[in-house]
Amino acid sequence: MVLNLIAIVLKFSFGQDFFFGFVPLVDLDREGNLPSYYQSCALLFCSILLMVIGIAGKKSQDRDWIYWIGLSLLFAFVSLDESISIHEQLIKPVRKLFNLSGIFYFAWVIPYGIIVALLALVHIRFFFRLPRKVFWLFAAAAACYIGGALGIELVGGYYFSKVHEQLDFNYALITTVEETMEMVGLIIFVCGLLEFIEQRYRQVQIQVGEKGSGVFS
Length: 217
Hints:
Mean pLDDT: 92
Helix content: over 70%
Number of strands: 2
Number of helices: 8
Structural class: mainly alpha
Number of domains: 3
Strand order of the largest sheet: 1-2
Largest sheet: 2 strands, antiparallel
Radius of gyration: 21 Å
Low-confidence stretches: 212-217
Distance between the termini: 37 Å
């Protein structure tokens, strides 16, 4: 985020759109650069943790194991989306289909917003069965990540359409807030996943030989 702020100052205050490759490398509003790969890896890491919990839950006959597996697959898709920008391909056709502008200028938020709402309904009982601390970490992560990815994206779409699709310093600040909220949301989510693993799977019993046993904590 700090490197991005330096980049947008160089770009809009000093007219340095490239600056030896530094600006496009760290610009949060670009795809296929350092921040986007970081986000993709963070999402993939969440997917791996979710899969580990799901597999462990299935072995321990936890009734919620299927939810963890499903969330793992969802995060794997979002990681792929982050790296190759699948959602960006929806903007023009959806905008043209519904003649959208203003806050819905970046029209991908409509189909993705509907999907998020449906997933929330499907998982609501599952979330309320989580340990209280994990529940609040997940809630904070969702508010931060979705608030940035969808909420601030609506603000950015409104501003971008009002300035006639011109990139400027203010729009760069909006995207900085959006992407930073997404990154912070993922960090909180990882904390929640690790907290759940610590609470639920703190000890692993293993058999040593035929008579003894040992415990790894």
